[in-house]
Amino acid sequence: RETEAFWVLLLDSRNGLKGRPVEITRGLVNASMVHPREVFMEAIRSATASVILAHNHPSGDPTPSAEDLRITRQMVEVGKLMQIRVQDHIILGKAGGAHPEFLSLRESGAVAFE
C-alpha cells in the first residue's frame, strides 16, 4: 500500500480468529490516525475476548516509531479497563526488501502487554 492503514484482528476466548481483519483507519503516506474508541467498538460488537493490532509502514521498514509505541501502550491500557486483552501489535513492512517483512511489538519487547 502507498498509505498507512490500521487493522484489528478479533479473537475468541481460544485465540481463534473470528473473521477477516477489520480496517479501522486508512491514513496518509506516513501516518494513520487511530483512536481506541474505534478499535474497541469493533471488539465489543463482536463479543471479542482479545485483539491483535496491525498496521503497515509504506516505507517497507517495520521499525516502530515513537507514535506506534505510544498508541500501542494506550491500547493495552484501554484494553485492560475493558477486559479485552491486546495480544500484540504487528507492523508490516514490504516482502523482499532490505528490512524484515514484519515486526511483532510483543516479541521485540518494545511494549509490555501484560
How is the secondary structure organized here?
Blueprint: E1 5-11, E2 22-26, H1 36-45, E3 50-56, H2 66-82, E4 85-92, E5 102-104, H3 105-108
Q: TL;DR?
A:
The protein is an alpha+beta fold and 114 residues long. It has helices spanning 36-45, 66-82, 105-108, and strands at 5-11, 22-26, 50-56, 85-92, 102-104. The mean pLDDT is 91.
Task: Write down the overall mean pLDDT.
Answer: 91
Assembly type of the chains comes to single chain
Count of DSSP strands: 5
Low-confidence stretches: none
Radius of gyration: 13 Å
Describe the structure.
Helix 2 (66-82) links the parallel strand 3 (50-56) and strand 4 (85-92). The protein has helices at residues 36-45, 66-82, 105-108; strands at residues 5-11, 22-26, 50-56, 85-92, 102-104. The protein contains three helices and five strands. The model has no long low-confidence stretch (mean pLDDT 91). It has a five-stranded mixed sheet with strand order 2-1-3-4-5. The chain is an alpha+beta fold and 114 residues long. It starts with a strand and ends in a 6-residue tail after the last helix. The longest helix is centred in the middle third of the chain and has 17 residues, at 66-82.
Offer a few descriptive terms.
single chain, 114 residues, alpha+beta, five-stranded mixed beta sheet, 3 helices, 27% helix, 26% strand, globular
